[in-house]
Write a structure and sequence with these properties.
12 helices, single chain, binds pyridoxal-5'-phosphate
């Protein structure tokens, strides 16, 4: 093993450090495997209950009328998320698009949107109009209010109560930290926040941005009162095989409106050809629990390695996990570059490329991204990224297999060490 790794650029010293850290993680990994087994059974049961058959994988084109395979996949998602309905489509281009559909379908002029968890994910800021943008919700007369988290990262219930008013229609709760260094929330915490919001105003629609959270726990936000649970298929639920897509699982009333927003009023869920993508969408969902488990092991491994060397990690080495993201505060741009070059050099695709910071649509500072993915931009595949701004935190996620995630983390340490930024022993 050591010899092969040395040929691949990984020194014996870094490999050895990794083995030492790993020897303390057996119990953590066993718990991750237990959850994966439960979630695997949950997905399998939904596929069996719905009698998924080979005939459901047929490609459709054009309008996509009577696409039984597409409709059944949505039923499988609805069963796994325990919701009345689901919209799962390759026509949903990304997570931001899925969230935009959910928001703009269920908010009308004069309504107010509330984020009780502080500033939302970068790309959502333009969707909402926090940063002015053509076609934002603000342009259509939807106002926005925000209740910030307390300094220790928990919900400020008094501020949430004060923020809810007669105009408040929809509450958006982001499960994962995104590019912030606040904690990600557990499904149970999200349930408490939803219950609180609905106790103040019972007819509020509660939406959860579930990006990176799927299958990390054995329950999902839809199990604790979310009216819409929303995410991207090139993250956890696509299992690395979905080449595009997004999902919205929720109440029939909300999901129907989302379908009318995605296609057109009157058409809704009836149109939308699958273009031959159903095998990847079904198989990816089937693999998602174990792929997510591999990514989680990589995140736990990274936290333990980097924390040992004195870097602040969010979550830290022992905290429970609520998503697959691992933030590591590297303290400098040079650290971010070295870390990302390690992840890039460990990739199966584009391993020869050098990541450099650049401007990205939807983000307000230059972003560095390392990814050598089979699906462009897929972040269930091993990747690392982060905006070049203090505290120079890199956000590490994914890995289609635990073994690849492990190698990527070790290569990031290798490149940091070569740059004199990671103390070895
Ligand atoms: C990734 C992500 C999004 C947006 O997803 P894209 O597919 O990149 O558009 C939204 N919210 C959170 C928390 C995310 O992690």
């Amino acid at each position: 093993m050591k010899q092969l790794y040395e040929q691949m650029g990984l020194s014996a010293a870094v490999y050895q450090l990794g083995e030492e850290v790993l020897s303390g993680l057996e119990e953590r990994f066993r718990e991750i495997d237990r959850r994966a087994e439960y979630n695997q059974a949950k997905v399998l049961a939904a596929m069996q209950k719905n009698r998924v058959g080979a005939h459901h994988f047929a490609a459709t084109t054009g309008y996509g009328y009577n696409d039984g395979g597409r409709d059944l996949l949505e039923q499988v998602y609805a069963n796994v998320f325990h919701t009345e309905a689901a919209l799962v489509r390759p026509q949903i281009t990304c997570g931001t698009h899925a969230l935009t559909i959910a928001l703009s379908a269920n908010l009308l002029p004069g309504d107010e949107l509330l984020s009780p968890v502080g500033l939302p994910y970068d790309t959502l800021q333009e969707v909402i109009g926090i940063r002015p943008s053509p076609c934002s919700l603000a342009e259509y007369g939807v106002t926005y209010r925000q209740a910030d988290l307390t300094p220790d990262g928990s919900f400020d219930f008094d501020a949430v109560r004060r923020a809810i008013n007669e105009k408040t229609k929809l509450v958006t709760i982001q499960r994962s930290k995104g590019y912030a260094t606040r904690p990600s929330f557990s499904v149970q915490q999200i349930g408490e926040l939803i219950a609180f919001c609905k106790s103040v105003k019972p007819d509020l629609i509660c939406m959860v941005d579930n990006c990176y959270g799927e299958f990390v726990d054995v329950i999902e936000p839809s199990d604790v009162g979310a009216d819409m649970t929303v995410g991207s298929l090139i993250k956890n639920p696509g299992g690395g095989l979905a080449p595009i897509g997004g999902y919205i699982c929720g109440t029939k009333a909300c999901v129907d409106r989302c379908a009318y927003r995605l296609s057109a009023p009157g058409l809704g869920q009836e149109v939308g050809a699958n273009l031959g993508l159903l095998p990847a969408l079904y198989q990816g969902f089937f693999l998602a629990p174990t792929v997510t488990a591999g990514a989680l092991k990589g995140a736990v491994f990274a936290a333990n390695l980097y924390e040992k060397a004195g870097f602040r990690c969010v979550p830290n080495s022992v905290e429970p996990r609520n998503d697959i993201i691992q933030a590591v505060e590297l303290g400098s741009e040079a650290g971010m570059l070295a870390f990302c070059s390690g992840i890039q050099s460990a990739a199966p695709v584009d391993s020869f490329a050098a990541p450099v910071p650049g401007d990205m649509p939807g983000y307000d500072s230059p972003v560095i991204m390392a990814a050598g993915a089979f699906v462009q931009g897929s972040s269930i595949e091993l990747s690392a990224d982060g905006p070049i701004r203090p505290p120079y935190a890199v956000y590490f996620q994914g890995g289609l297999t635990w073994q690849h995630a492990k190698f990527g983390v070790l290569m990031s340490v290798q490149k940091m060490a070569e740059a004199g930024l990671f103390p070895l022993a």
